[in-house]
Write a structure and sequence with these properties.
Largest sheet: none
Order of helices and strands: HHHHHHH
Mean pLDDT: 79
Strand content: under 5%
Number of strands: 0
Number of helices: 7
Distance between the termini: 34 Å
Structural class: mainly alpha
Low-confidence stretches: none
Length: 196
């Protein structure tokens, strides 16, 4: 039987949502788990407008558009889209996709330790990479590649370039691949712990 965590990763549902679906299936049958949404989601912006926004995010800063900030955030982008196109997204997911299409990344600042010795860390990283890092790096590369494929698939579906049936089949395949890679990464990390 499938593990709850695996089902959560595959479906992007919470534990309680999974149990509610299971309960509904047991009482009402397949109709309880059927997707009630019909057709494509309503698009707030045209494909051309989205492309224009992505290009603007790549080439301009919020300061160029009248904001105080040097860097784009979902809040600033959402406000700008609302003012320019009179369209407001209910969630930040579409705004995240704009940043992904613009190839933006974000990083949380790391912690700095008082007894931080840069040379010692570099030496340790070199030793680790030689011993077992290549496997972990390959898995990370595969994870990044799978995530990019998933992001591109979502974009194709939202743009209406692929039918829903094909989208769902490919999405399931890529999510299974992500779960498999996560298990491989856990195994590789466990081996590294045992080795050290």
């Amino acid at each position: 039987m499938a593990d709850i965590q695996d089902i959560g990763v595959l479906t992007d549902l919470s534990r309680s949502q999974i149990f509610n679906l299971c309960k509904g299936f047991l009482t009402k049958g397949i109709s309880a788990i059927k997707d009630k949404r019909e057709g494509k989601p309503k698009e707030l912006l045209t494909k051309k407008e989205r492309e224009t926004i992505v290009e603007m995010v790549k080439t301009k800063t919020p300061k160029d558009c009248g904001y105080v900030s040097e860097y784009w955030t979902t809040g600033i982008l959402g406000n700008w889209i609302e003012q320019e196109y009179k369209a407001k997204y209910k969630s930040k997911t579409s705004l995240y996709l704009v940043f992904k299409q613009a190839r933006f990344t974000y990083h949380k600042p790391g912690m700095v330790y008082r007894e931080h010795d840069e040379q010692e860390i570099e030496q340790w990283e070199k030793e680790e990479n030689v011993s077992s890092g290549s496997l972990v790096e390959r898995i990370r590369g595969n994870e990044r590649e799978t995530q990019e494929k998933l992001d591109n698939l979502i974009t194709l579906y939202l743009d209406g370039d692929i039918p829903k049936v094909n989208y769902l089949a490919k999405k399931d395949e890529l999510l299974l691949q992500k779960v498999s890679l996560a298990h491989k990464m856990d195994s590789a990390r466990q081996e590294r712990k045992n080795w050290v």
